[in-house]
Amino acid sequence: MPTAAIGPITRERYEQIIAADRELVGQMQRIQFTIGGPALEIEPMQPVGGARPAPGEEPFGVDVSLQIYADDRGLSLSTVRCYRFAAHRRPEEPRRHGVSHKVHYILAGIPDDQVRFETIDAPPLDERARVRRWTTGLAKKHVGQLTDRPETPSQKVAAIHRPADDDEVAAQVATDVLRRPAVAANVVADDTARHMVNKAQTTQHKTEVVHDLVEDDAVAAQVASDVLRRPEVASRVVADDTARHAVNRAQTDRSRQQADVFRRETPAGWTVRKIERSRGSWT
């Protein structure tokens, strides 16, 4: 055990704090299992497929009963479900004093009873503390879950992928990291990634070329008329609020201009104008 100070306090004082806290952790564990027991009695675990039923797998009535129990306890439904599952997988005998309820709950995901009971009695080596013990991180690592503090490259990549599921977030992350030469070099070594970047660059280049060519309004109008005859292009254009508004406004302006020409330049238009003027004089 290292002898260095922990933060601003001595190792001796730190050990005193930990000794007192271990008793509190034990009390918390007993309370959490005490809450899980009645929840399990109110709604026994259902024989749904899989070792660990996923949220929503159980009948609707189960959550209704557990929600009532959770509300009366001042807890969330998810907390009560967690306590209930741990109580189901950890009967009195295999519970271990000094091991947090959270670790019991994580290891409860081990499907085989015998393996699960033996596992909690064989804690792994905590490399930082240089002692054998269960922490939530080591328990998650043992059952293959993502740890709160990823350590290996694969764990870090998995942790990044979760928020990067959003395309906008992923694009910003990619833009930021590709400014680092070493990262860019690794990316272009990936055939698929390089192909996608090249494809995107080609599309962007084509768009820029078209924009340069259609600076003249007459050219732009002709191009727009041509491409809007393609249904897939027209459907994308009308999905753009600004473009659709501009087209609608142009249609309204064109109708007004055609009406003015009709009134000014055709015999029928002259007649209409006379009628409109005579109606105006009557009013």
Rg calculated over all Cα atoms: 35 Å
Shape: elongated
Mean pLDDT across all residues, rounded?
Answer: 76
Number of domains: 3
Q: For the report, how would you describe the main beta sheet?
A: 2 strands, antiparallel
Alpha plus pi helix count: 14
- Alpha-beta content class: mainly alpha
Strand element count:
2
User: Which blocks of ≥5 consecutive residues have pLDDT under 50?
Assistant: 49-53
How do the SSEs run, as a string of H and E?
HHHHHEEHHHHHHHHH
Distance between the termini: 104 Å
Strand content: under 5%
Proportion of residues in helical segments? 55-70%
Widest sheet, order of strands: 1-2
Explain this structure:
The chain has 283 residues and is mostly helical. It folds into three domains: 11-122, no CATH class; 163-209; 214-282, no CATH class. Helices cover 68% and strands 1% of the residues. The protein is built from 14 helices and two strands. It has helices at 11-42, 60-73, 77-89, 101-107, 113-119, 136-143, 153-161, 167-177, 181-188, 191-213, 217-227, 231-238, 241-265, 267-282, and strands at 125-126, 131-132. Strands 1-2 form a two-stranded antiparallel sheet. Helix 1 (11-42) crosses helix 3 (77-89), helix 3 crosses helix 4 (101-107) and helix 13 (241-265) packs across helix 14. Mean pLDDT is 76; it is low at 49-53.
